Amino acid sequence: MKPILLSEIEAFFNIKAEKQESDFFLEGFAPIEKATSKDISFSNFSQLPHQLKEIKAGLLFVPQDFENTSSHIKSILRVDHPYHAMVSFLEHFYIPFISFPSSKMASTAVIHPSAIVEGVVGEHCQIGPGCVVSKGAFIGDKTILEANVTVYPNVIIGSDCIIQAGVVIGSRGFGFYEFKNERFPVPHVSGVRIGNSCEFGANMVVASGFLSPTVIGNECHFDSFVQIGHNCTLGNRIYMASQSGLGGSTIVEDDVELAGGAQVAGHLTIGKGARVAAKAGVTKNVATGATVAGFPAIDIDIWRREVIAIRQKAMHKKSEI
C-alpha cells in the first residue's frame, strides 16, 4: 500500500492516537505477530499475551480497556471493535501496490488466443484456453495453466508448476465477523504465494489471505476439488487427495499427507510428516509424525480398535434378538 500518515488515520476515525513520537508514515499492514514498526495491525486483547510482548507495530487498533505493557508499539488507537476498525481501514485506505509491471509476457511464453493476461507471465509458460491472469498476478517460468484457470491479483506462482483445468487461486476466503448484530465479509486482500514444482488438480481453490498471504511451499501436490482456506501456511511436499480441505489459518508442516475427503478445522497445526486418513475430521492439532483417523480424528490404532469394539458389540446385540 502507499505510505499513510498516522494523522490521516486519526482524522478518518476521529480519534487521537496514543503515540511515542510525532506524526509518522505507516507503510503496510500485517497480523499482530508479524507486524513491524511500519505496519498497522489490531488486537482484541485487553492485555497482550506473553508471547506478543515484543511486537513492534507502528499502529495497533486496540479495545478501550487495553493495557499497554509493551514499549515497542509506536502508537495505539482505542476503538470499540478493533477487528472492524482494521477492516474499515483496509476498505478506505488500501490500494494494492503492484511491484512488477502489468501485461508483461515473455517472448517464449505460449498464450492461447482466448486467454486474458493482464499480469506477468514468465519464460516458457503455457497459458491455456479461457484462462485469466489478473493484473498484479505473477506466473513463474515454465509454469503451465491448463484450460479456464483463474489467477486473481496479488498472486505469485513459482516456476515449473502445473495448474489443471478450472483451478481458482486468490479468490476471497469464506470469512465473516459480527459488528452491531450484523455480519460483514472479511476483505481478503493479501493474495497467495506459491513455491516451485507444485501441481494443482482440476477445480481446486486456494483462497487469498487477510493481513498476510496464504502460502504454499515447494513440491506440493493436490488432487481435484481440494480446498485451501484463507491464511493457511503450507510447507514443502504436501500431498492432499481429492475433496480434502483446510479451514482458514491452518498451518501444515513439511511432508504431510491428507487422504481423500479428509477435513481440517481452522486455526490448527498439522505436524511434520503427519498423516490424516480418508474422511477424517481433524478438530485439534496433530503431532509430528502422527497418523489420525475418524471423527473427531484420533490416533489411527485407537480408532481401529474402537471400530472393531463397536462392531463386535453390535453383532453381539444382534445375536441376542
Identify low-pLDDT runs.
none
Mean pLDDT: 94
Mass-distribution shape: flat
The largest sheet has its strands arranged as 9-12-15-18-23-26-29-32-35-37-38
CATH class of the largest domain: Mainly Beta
Structural class: alpha/beta
- Characterize the main sheet: 11 strands, mixed
Q: How many domains make up the coordinates?
A: 2
CATH superfamily of the largest domain: Hexapeptide repeat proteins
Indicate the CATH topology of the largest domain.
Answer: UDP N-Acetylglucosamine Acyltransferase, domain 1
Radius of gyration: 23 Å
Q: How many individual helices?
A: 3
Strand content: 25-35%
Briefly summarize what is shown:
The protein has 321 residues and is α/β, with parallel strands linked by helices.
Keywords for this structure?
321 residues, alpha/beta, UDP N-Acetylglucosamine Acyltransferase, domain 1, 2 domains, eleven-stranded mixed β-sheet, flat
Overview of this protein structure:
- This protein is an alpha/beta fold and 321 residues long.
- The chain folds into two domains: 90 residues, MurE/MurF, N-terminal domain (Udp-n-acetylmuramoylalanyl-d-glutamate--2,6- Diaminopimelate Ligase, Chain: A, domain 1), CATH 3.40.1390.10; 197 residues, UDP N-Acetylglucosamine Acyltransferase, domain 1 (3 Solenoid), CATH 2.160.10.
- The protein is 13% helix and 29% strand.
- The chain has three helices and 38 strands.
- The strands form six sheets. An eleven-stranded mixed sheet has the order 9-12-15-18-23-26-29-32-35-37-38, covered by helices on one side. Strands 8-11-14-17-22-25-28-31-34 form a nine-stranded parallel sheet, with no helix packed on it. The chain has a nine-stranded parallel sheet with strand order 10-13-16-19-24-27-30-33-36, with no helix packed on it.
